[in-house]
């Protein structure tokens, strides 16, 4: 299958990733791939998990442990600045979810195939000429990690690749599903964090300037920085849409802000199935990957209702908690699906063609 997978990946790069990079920065508006050769080393599937509980009877959910280490030849350029760069090798490791739905009573038995990563995969790219690329005016503030984020985020939930296998399937409902729920994250406080700041060439240990990064899929939130405090209190609230469970997790990392490189203060990984089951969790969690430190979180699982019957009750409770979030807490969710456009002014199309 690998040669045909390579054809699909080339199409993905040109039709999805290339426009995403162009839209990320005005100076990248003429970015394009001039050559895409993924190489002969195929992707490996190191493990498969199949879900049998909490799954709709008309779907099959698989989680694939994906590993790809391959030599490739990918060339890219920014015509506006006559700048070229390339990629010699790519590594990608992560959990890819494959959903087969809807199951149907006729061949091929599966209506469509959806692919996406549950969280940002580990992506490493060996560049050639990247220094020249980042010397372009307006791009010197970028880095290779930002470019990797642009690429990987387009492969992470809620973004998904959906391939219809029969003509009758409602592709829009599969590509843009209604979220399963909303996770309200009360990022409250931490205790007994490690002191990373040092004085007198490391002889005296000081405190830390902690902040948190919270991830659900490709939704990322960053807390404020609390200066010189090992027991910080943030009292911030974030809300994230949850599209897939089982499988999705809440990821939290704490860091100590430094002028050069921020120091790691610990992490947490919380299965959202547990939050949905309990509806409300208010606990102290022990931080992983460090010798000490705890994090106090309150997690609420909010279910979407099909009607507005309970809206007044929700608004009343939100007004009571109005100071918890900078932009207020949500009371409802508005979902817009842009289907198509017709009869666009021809002059706009011509102008766009001339400018590009």
From TrEMBL:
<feature type="domain" description="C2">
    <location>
        <begin position="165"/>
        <end position="285"/>
    </location>
</feature>
<dbReference type="InterPro" id="IPR035892">
    <property type="entry name" value="C2_domain_sf"/>
</dbReference>
<keyword id="KW-0106">Calcium</keyword>
<keyword id="KW-0472">Membrane</keyword>
<keyword id="KW-0677">Repeat</keyword>
<comment type="similarity">
    <text>Belongs to the extended synaptotagmin family.</text>
</comment>
<keyword id="KW-1133">Transmembrane helix</keyword>
<dbReference type="GO" id="GO:0005886">
    <property type="term" value="C:plasma membrane"/>
</dbReference>
<dbReference type="InterPro" id="IPR051634">
    <property type="entry name" value="Extended_Synaptotagmin"/>
</dbReference>
<protein>
    <submittedName>
        <fullName>ESYT2 protein</fullName>
    </submittedName>
</protein>
<keyword id="KW-0479">Metal-binding</keyword>
<keyword id="KW-0445">Lipid transport</keyword>
<dbReference type="GO" id="GO:0008429">
    <property type="term" value="F:phosphatidylethanolamine binding"/>
</dbReference>
<dbReference type="InterPro" id="IPR000008">
    <property type="entry name" value="C2_dom"/>
</dbReference>
<feature type="domain" description="SMP-LTD">
    <location>
        <begin position="1"/>
        <end position="166"/>
    </location>
</feature>
<dbReference type="GO" id="GO:0035091">
    <property type="term" value="F:phosphatidylinositol binding"/>
</dbReference>
<dbReference type="InterPro" id="IPR039010">
    <property type="entry name" value="Synaptotagmin_SMP"/>
</dbReference>
<keyword id="KW-0813">Transport</keyword>
<keyword id="KW-0812">Transmembrane</keyword>
<keyword id="KW-0446">Lipid-binding</keyword>
<dbReference type="GO" id="GO:0006869">
    <property type="term" value="P:lipid transport"/>
</dbReference>
<dbReference type="GO" id="GO:0005544">
    <property type="term" value="F:calcium-dependent phospholipid binding"/>
</dbReference>
<dbReference type="InterPro" id="IPR031468">
    <property type="entry name" value="SMP_LBD"/>
</dbReference>
<dbReference type="Pfam" id="PF00168">
    <property type="entry name" value="C2"/>
</dbReference>
<dbReference type="Pfam" id="PF17047">
    <property type="entry name" value="SMP_LBD"/>
</dbReference>
<keyword id="KW-1003">Cell membrane</keyword>
<dbReference type="InterPro" id="IPR037733">
    <property type="entry name" value="Ext_Synaptotagmin_C2A"/>
</dbReference>
<dbReference type="GO" id="GO:0005789">
    <property type="term" value="C:endoplasmic reticulum membrane"/>
</dbReference>
<keyword id="KW-0256">Endoplasmic reticulum</keyword>
<dbReference type="GO" id="GO:0061817">
    <property type="term" value="P:endoplasmic reticulum-plasma membrane tethering"/>
</dbReference>
<dbReference type="GO" id="GO:0031210">
    <property type="term" value="F:phosphatidylcholine binding"/>
</dbReference>
<dbReference type="GO" id="GO:0005509">
    <property type="term" value="F:calcium ion binding"/>
</dbReference>
